[in-house]
Amino acid sequence: MVKIWKVLNRRLQSGKKRISGRSFGTISIRHRGGALKRKYRFIEYFRQKWLNIWIYTLRIEYDPNRTAFIALCCSIKYGIYFYILAPHKLQLGSLIQTSMSNIKNIGDSSKLESIPEGIFLNSLELFKNSGSKLSRAAGTGSIIIKQFNKKYSLVKLSSKEHRLVSKDCFATMGSVSNLNHKLEKKLKASDTRNKGFRPTVRGIAMNPVDHPHGGRTNGGITCRTYSGKIGLNKSTRRKNRFSNSLIIIGQRKQKLIEKKK
Fold first, then answer.
1. How many domains does the chain have?
2. What distance in Å separates the CA atoms of residue 46 and residue 178, rounded to the nearest whole number?
3. Whether the Cβ atoms of residue 103 and residue 110 lie closer than 8 Å to each other
4. In the UniProt record, does the keyword Cell membrane occur (predicted)?
5. Using CA atoms, how far apart are residues 233 and 157, in angstroms rounded to an integer?
């Protein structure tokens, strides 16, 4: 059973201050505040530190700070405890490792160049030695479509985006745990409030001073955000980002291709 356990070592957690969407007193993110108290668990996103060291899985826990489950692990050689994101079907008592080759079990970590095509991956690095950035939410996973060249691998992300990732980046075998997270139903309003989300008010129900849609004057204006920016059909991504050259097929284009099929 997945539940909240007492932490074995205090170094694995710390108190978490509730900011409630404020930045020096001003609201930077709306509809935030009022969450329950929680403690932050430190997750090991740099698996290459444990290269060629066997790791024992002690238990799988619930983490209130993320949608996926986490696994408490212990290195057999040094006896150090740490948390990792629990892959789907990771068994208690299983041995996992970080290796440059010959990865076989779910939870093993290695470079993309030594991982065969068609296998689900999680905790994928975006750049070399950057730590896990991609495929960390519950039920997500990336797939290596093709070893593109000597430098890059073509990876399909859970958002259906096709992207080139360096072969020196590390990834973990298996998709992320808690696949049924998308099927969870909120039975009462406090389920959302306890997670730190406050109610959302429609712009048209506000006064003109509070929102561009306010005053109940329908029509005559395009859909806009509360700050006056265009809200629909406008890209917010910067055009001159370095990573744009690594995206082969974007999310929108891939979804249009699948609709035509």
1. 1
2. 22
3. yes
4. no
5. 23
